Amino acid sequence: MPSFTMIAPRGDHPVHGHFWIPIDDENCWAWSFDYHPLRALTPHERQAMIDGHGIHVTYVPGTYRPAANKDNDYLIDRAAQRRGETYSGVHGIAMQDASLQESMGPIVDRRKENLVSTDNGIIMARHRLMRAARALAEKGVMPPGRDPAHQLVRSAAVVLPPDQAFAEAAREDLRVRPGVHHSTV
Amino acid sequence: MTGESARANSAAEARFRVQAPNSAPRRVAVVALDAGAAALAEELAARDWVGAAFWHAGGLAARGEGLDDFLADLAGATRRVVEVVAASDLVVLLAGTSGHGAAAASAVGAAAAARRVMAAGIVLAGDAEEAELSRALSTLRPHVGMLVVARDRDYAAAMMEALRA
Lengths: 185, 165
Prior knowledge:
Strand order of the largest sheet of chain A: 1-2-3
Shape of chain B: globular
Number of helices of chain B: 8
Shape of chain A: globular
CATH class of chain B: Alpha Beta
Number of domains of chain B: 1
Structural class of chain B: alpha/beta
Oligomer: heterodimer
CATH topology of chain B: Rossmann fold
Radius of gyration of chain B: 19 Å
Helix content of chain A: 25-40%
Helix content of chain B: 25-40%
Largest sheet of chain B: 7 strands, mixed
Radius of gyration of chain A: 19 Å
Strand content of chain B: 15-25%
Number of helices of chain A: 5
Largest sheet of chain A: 3 strands, antiparallel
Structural class of chain A: alpha+beta
Distance between the termini of chain B: 44 Å
Order of helices and strands of chain B: HHEHEHEEHEHEHEH
Strand order of the largest sheet of chain B: 4-3-2-1-5-6-7
CATH architecture of chain B: 3-Layer(aba) Sandwich
Largest interface: A-B, 31 and 36 residues
């Protein structure tokens, strides 16, 4: 089911993403990962993760809680905003994203959203989740995506001619191919 | 001391949030391009919508005479393409996999582009083979800003509900 993100790669950089794992009705664990399909991460790449760069964060020592969190207003730096050094005042894309997601509150009334037709990815993901939930509740049908063969997916960065459907033209790029570099630009 | 963000997140504070929708309902024109899409358009029209109107493009597709052509509503009344588009915030072109309706898609897409109205396409793919699906996508792709392959027949309704049509 769509509870994972895998960001399209660039160059020889590792691939990043998140696992969004619900733990009750109002909370989920967000695990963040980096990997490279052909090699171990370099010490520099590992240190960048530990230092909270990219999609990663630093933590309250001894916990898995981000150091910037809602109890300290995500360490928002109003002075840096005034100086024009940062737009949001929150350091790093990870907490910029997380602060917006978390500050919506635990359960959001989606009827008040202002989606547009280019939000079809969101609409589609919710549609699939709802169908799967209803099928499980009403007919006992187990959700898709549990077969390991269906989990052999990759994100990819490819440039296709405008007349080609990506699902077909990039089919091989979007599958795990052991020993083959991820498709990137 | 509880941070401002933590307080704003609490149930006690949530009651101060604006409870109204943050945008007006959208006027959506759904244009069925072929017979399969027309059948779905009639099903959709039977539901309750705030601002959705449903049109057939069958006659326009046959004549293919450009922007002066007319669309027909489900009761058979006709209206110029440009007027339908001008009265809409979003145009949804609904197509099966017949590959028919290229002229209609072109006319509606051109009218939408001229008036800066977003045009989205939904291809009702069902169990269609890839070649058939590719042909249907090629028919719509040049004329819409967003193109969706819907394997589930109920996706069009889900999309319209999400867009507050």
